[in-house]
Amino acid sequence: MANGAPDAASMAKKQQEISVADFFAKNRHMLGFDNARKALLTAVKEAVDNSLDACEEARILPDIRVEIRKVEGADDQYTLVVRDNGPGIVKAQIPRVFGKLLYGSKFHRLRMSRGQQGIGISAAGMYGQITTAKPVQITSRPHKSKPAHYYELRMDLKTNEPVILNEQETDWTSSVTGTQVAITMKATYFRGRQSVDEYLEQTAIANPHARFVFVAPDGVERVFPRAAQELPPEPLEIQPHPHGIELGIFTRLLQDSPYKSLGVFMTSAFSRVTSQIAAKVCKEAGIALSCIPAEVHPTDGEKLFQALQKAEIPPPRTDCLAPIGVEHLLKGMHKELGAEFYSATTRKPAIYRGNPFQIEVGIAYGGKLDSDGTARVIRFANRVPLQYQLSACASTKSVMDVSWKSYGLSQSRGSLPAGPLVIMVHMASVWVPFTNQAKEAIADYDEIRKEFKLAVQEAGRKLGTYLKKKQAAANQAKRRNVFNAYIEEVVRAYQAITTKDGQELREALLATSRKKTELAERLEAMKHKAAPEEMEGTLIIGEDGNPIVPGAAAALVEELSQSQVDAAEKMLEESGSDASVTDSVSDAPDIEPAERADGGVTDGVLPGDAPIVLSAPTISWPSMTAGKKTDNATLSLFGEEDA
Ligand SMILES: Nc1ncnc2c1ncn2[C@@H]1O[C@H](COP(=O)(O)OP(=O)(O)OP(=O)(O)O)[C@@H](O)[C@H]1O
Ligand SMILES: [Mg+2]
Fold first, then answer.
1. How far, in Å, from the CA of 178 to the mean position of ligand 1?
2. Which pLDDT tens digit goes with each residue over 548-588?
3. Which tens digits make up the pLDDT trace of 257-294?
4. Cα–Cα distance between 343 and 469 in angstroms, integer?
5. Please, are residues 266 and 241 in contact by the beta-carbon 8 Å criterion?
6. How far apart are alpha carbons 297 and 316 in whole angstroms?
7. CB 192: neighbour CB atoms within 10 A?
8. Any atom of ligand 1 within 6 Å of the Cβ of 451
C-alpha cells in the first residue's frame, strides 16, 4: 500500500448506512425532479394520479381541482394545490403518507392502479422542501360529518421520517370527503409540449369519467368536463402467478408465510393453484402437504419451487384489468383532438412474467391535426400519460416497427409515420414495468412489444380502409363532374340541331350520370365486402364537426355494404349480364335499353386494388328528331372516354 493511502481500517470509518430519503434527495432526477420545468409537471402528476386512484378505489366519480399560484416576491417559486373529492386520509396516516418515502398502500398488491411504489407524493413534498424550505400543507376530511385535519409537515432526510410542524382541525369548504395537498417548490410554468396543460389534456382523454378544473398562474381557468358518467369497472386484486415468480422470492414467501400448511400456503398465496394442483406439486417434490411453510428447509423449498414450475397451471386471471375500452377511447379522443377519423382497438389480455396486461391503441387522423412532420404518439400506462422518454418506451418502438405504407401513409425506414396523425397507446396492467422510478417509459419485454404492435396494426388497418374509401369517394365525385360537363356539351349540340330546349334530354342524362356513379360506389363497397368488421370501432366526423354516425361508424359501412351491395347485385342480375361485375343503364328514364358494347373499361381503380372490369355501357339517343327515334344514333357517354 502506498504511503498515506487509506487502508481498510480508515476506509471503514467512512462507511455508513445511506438513508433512503438522502439517496433520493441526491438522485431526484430518478424521480422526475431533474429541473424546474419538469418538477412542476411531476408534482402535478403525482398528486392527480393519487387523487384519481383514491376516488376510483372508493367508487367516487373524480372531481379534481389543480391550481398553480406564483409565490409573491420569488421569481421561480410556485405553490401547487391539488384538491379531490376522494375518500380522504385518516388522521394518523397523513404524516407518513406525505412525509416518508416508500410508504403507501399499493406496492405490495397486484392490482391495476396509477401508483405502485409508495414514493410519488412524498417525493414531490421532499423536492419542495429541498428547493424552498417550505413545509407541505395537507388538509383531509375522511368523514362527511366531522371537521377536516390540517397538517404542516417536513421530512427528516436522515431518518426518512415525517416531522409535524403544525396540526389542527379545520373547516372543509365542500359537503363531501376529500384531500388537498399544497406544495411550494422551485419551478417554471409553461404551456405546450410536456407541460401541465398537456398532462391534463391527455389525462382527460384517458379518463373520460373524471372532471378537472385547472387554474394556471395567470388566473386562466380551464375546465375538462366529464364525458362518461360511469366509473371504469373496479379492478380486482390478484395473487402472483407461480410461473411468474423467481426462486428467491418464492423462498421468502415461504419463510414469511403465516399459513399453517403448505396446502393452504400454495392455494392462498398464488393465483390459479387449486388444492389438487398443490397436492400434486407436494407429491412431486416429496414433501408433505401438511408441512408448516415457515419450517420448510431451503433445499426442500427449491424442490417445491421446481415442481411448481413444471406443474400445469392455468394462466393468471385477466378480469383484474380495467382497460379504457373502444367506446371511451373514441369518446376521449374525439373530445380533445378535433380529428376527422378515429379508430380504436382493445386487445385481449396477455401475460408477461406472470403479470396480466392489456394493450389498447387509438388512432386519430386528419381534421385539425397538424399535418407537418411525423405522427404524434401519446402514451399511457394505467391511464396515466407518459410525457418523457418517448424513444425509450416499448410502445414507441412498436409503432415504428409497423409498416404504415400499407395503410396509405408515408414512413421513412425505422421511424414514425408522417401525416396528420395521433397514435394513442395504453398499457393496463397489475404491474407496469417502468424503466425508472419516475414512471416515464415502459420496459421492452417481448410479450409487451408484440401486443403493442398487433394493436397498432389492428387500428392502422381501419385507418387504411377509411383512407381507401375516402379516395374512392373523391374519385367518384371527380368522375361525376366529368360526366356532367359532357352532358352540357351534348345538350347544346342537341339544341342546335333540333331547336328544342333539351331539358328532357338533360334530365335523362343527369339521371343516368347519377345512376352510373352511384352504381360504381356500390361496386366499390362490394370490393370491400369485408369492410363492416374492419370498420368496427371507428368514428368518422362530418364537416359540421358531428359524428357521421353516432357511436361507431360501422353501421355506415354496413348500410353501404349490405343494402347497397344487395341492390347492386340485384341490379346486376337484372341486367342479365353473365359477367360477374357489370353495369347497365337499362332502367334509366326515357332511355332505351343499352346495347352491350364489346370489351370493357376499367373503373374506380384504387391504389393497390385489382381493377374491376365493367362492360362499356351505351345509351340510346332519345327523341332525336321530332319525337322519332333515329336508328344507329347511339352515343357512348360512359364508354371508353371516361375510363
Ligand atoms: N389524495 C389521496 N387520497 C387518498 N389517499 C391518498 C391520496 N394521496 C395518497 N394517498 C395514499 O398515500 C399513499 C402514498 O402515496 P404515494 O403517491 O406516495 O405512493 P403510491 O401512490 O402508493 O405509489 P407511487 O409512488 O407509484 O405514486 C397511497 O398509496 C395512498 O394510499
Ligand atoms: Mg402516487
1. 13
2. 753 333 433 344 444 444 544 454 344 333 333 223 222 33
3. 999 999 999 999 999 999 999 999 999 999 999 999 99
4. 15
5. no
6. 28
7. 7
8. no
Q: Which CATH number describes the domain made up of 20-224?
A: 3.30.565.10
Å from CA of 183 to ligand 2 middle: 15
pLDDT band at 520 (very low <50, low <70, confident <90, very high): low
Ligand 1 in contact with 180 (CB < 6 A)?
no
Q: Provide CATH 3.30.565.10 ranges for the chain.
A: 20-224
Q: Is any atom of ligand 1 closer than 6 Å to the C-beta of 104?
A: yes
Mutation to probe ligand 1, out of 60, 85, 111, 121 (largest number of atoms < 8 A from CB)? 121
Atom of ligand 1 nearest to the CA of 123: 18
Cell of 59: 367508487
> Quick one: CATH architecture of 242-310?
Orthogonal Bundle (1.10)
Distance from Cα 119 to the centre of ligand 1, integer Å? 8
Distance separating alpha carbons of residues 143 and 177, to the nearest angstrom: 6
CA pair distance 596, 576, nearest whole angstrom: 11
Q: What are phi and psi of 376, to 5 degrees?
A: -100, 130
**How many angstroms separate the CA atoms of 270 and 290, rounded?**
17
Q: Is the CB of residue 94 below 6 angstroms from any atom belonging to ligand 1? A: no
Largest Cα–Cα separation, the chain:
126
CA-nearest of 273, 299, 270, 276 to 286 is 299
Residue nearest to atom 14 of ligand 1 (CA): 104
- 111 alpha carbon – ligand 1 mean position (Å): 14
95 CB within 6 A, ligand 1: no
